[in-house]
Amino acid sequence: MRFAVRLLLRSPGFTLMALLSIALATGANTAVFSLVYSVVFRPLPFPEPSRLVSVTQFYPLFNESVVPSPTYFNWREGSSGLAQLAAYSMGEYTLTHGPVADRVATGLVTHEFFDVVGVRPKKGRSFSEAEDRPGADDVVIVSEAFSREHKIELDGRTYTVIGVMPESFAFPPGVQIWIPLALNPADSGQGGPIQLVRVIGRLRNRTSPAALSASLQTKSEHSAQSWTAGARIVTLPLRVWLTGKTEQVWFILFGAVLLVLLIACANVAGLLIARGAGRRQEMAIRLALGASVVRLRRQLLTESLLLGIVGSALGFALAAGLIHVLLPLIPYAMLVGRPVHLDTPVFLFTSLVAVATSL
Q: What is the three-class DSSP state of 55?
């Protein structure tokens, strides 16, 4: 190993070019892999995330997916495939504290919402059924950024803080404050106002999203609700719904940076071949002095591995900086509190890249 280091230091130009090629390639691959892993593969930060689904009605005539509040109440009455069901929507409210007013993303949720996602407030409690009604909804749950507040003012109305969510909880995406949705079932049956909501559910064991869609489709077709005509029930795993159609884009991007890695491997291979041609006399002399072919091959492999390891270490450091540049470009909805950092899976990937570039 020491001899390999000395030989590489004797050729600073070659060593610098090889390390630069490897560092740029592994840095780009590691950064993009970190993002792909977090968006596409890392589980959502909820208990049993594979059972969480997004349920909606797709209207082909309008090319829109929405759930009218009467439909939500119809689904909530009972479905053999659902263990729990909740509705939510999002809005921006004006948060007033003293002379300062800010617009904050706010989640409007039914009282079952936190039970469905499986995350309870870190302090205090979640909403009760009695608080999830019009006129009784002057309570609020906040993120830890507002944990010192006992009362807050939203759009001129005072709310009492009853719970504080963990810092890692960020659903709906970007929300820091949650208030009761306060839907009125009576309005749905008496021609009252209809709200459009999003619906999240937790599947029963051994129930698939497709089976739930079929069950709810049958339930909707047998209802007397005119707005369900022509609508199709769509049930997707929550992770898939959050990622949307961008999953293919991420894989295409990852494929593009893999091509960069292949180009870097070709560049390093070219440099090694050129260097090897210049070392023929050295190898011939070492063979004449009694060095075995196996030992020479081992020496050359050691030099290549050393280049790969050092170059990948530099690339790992470069990836940390690239992540900070790329992270703001990702819609927050795709992450939902999932961290993007250089953890064990990313380190293993970088190690494989190091070996690949060396060989």
A: strand
Residue 67, in any domain of the structure: yes
Q: What is the mean pLDDT of residues 87-107?
A: 87
Are residues 297 and 171 part of one domain? no
Q: Looking at the 3D structure of the chain, how many domains does it have?
A: 2
- Strands (DSSP E) along 110-227, which ranges? 123-124, 139-142, 151-154, 157-164, 177-180, 196-203
Q: What is the β-pairing status of strands 139-142 and 177-180?
A: antiparallel
Domain boundary among 197, 229, 261: 229
Higher pLDDT, 4 or 272: 272
The rounded radius of gyration (Å) of the Cα atoms in the chain is 29
**Mean of per-residue pLDDT scores for the chain:** 80
Could you tell me if 150 and 263 lie in one domain? no
Kindly state whether residues 149 and 225 are assigned to the same domain. Answer: yes
C-alpha–C-alpha distance, residues 181 and 72, integer Å:
13
Question: Virtual CA dihedral for 342, 346, 350, 356, nearest 10 degrees?
Answer: -170
C-alpha span between 70 and 2 (Å, rounded): 75
Domain that holds residue 177: 62-229
**Displacement of CA 195 from its chain's centroid (Å):** 29
Q: What distance in Å separates the CA atoms of residue 166 and residue 60, rounded to the nearest whole number? A: 39
- For residue 28, give the amino acid letter: A
Buried b (16+ CB within 10 A) or exposed e, 45-74: bbeebebbbbbbbebeeeeebbbbbbbbbb
Do 120 and 21 lie in one domain? The reply is: no
316-357 pLDDT per residue, tens: 888 888 888 877 777 666 666 666 777 677 777 766 766 666
CA–CA separation, 163 and 153 (whole Å)? 16
* Pair (350, 252) in one structural domain: yes
C-beta separation of 113 from 200 below 8 A:
yes
Nearest of 285, 231, 237 to residue 74 by alpha carbon: 231
Is there a domain that residue 55 lies in? no
The number of CA neighbours under 13 Å toward the Cβ of 122 is: 12
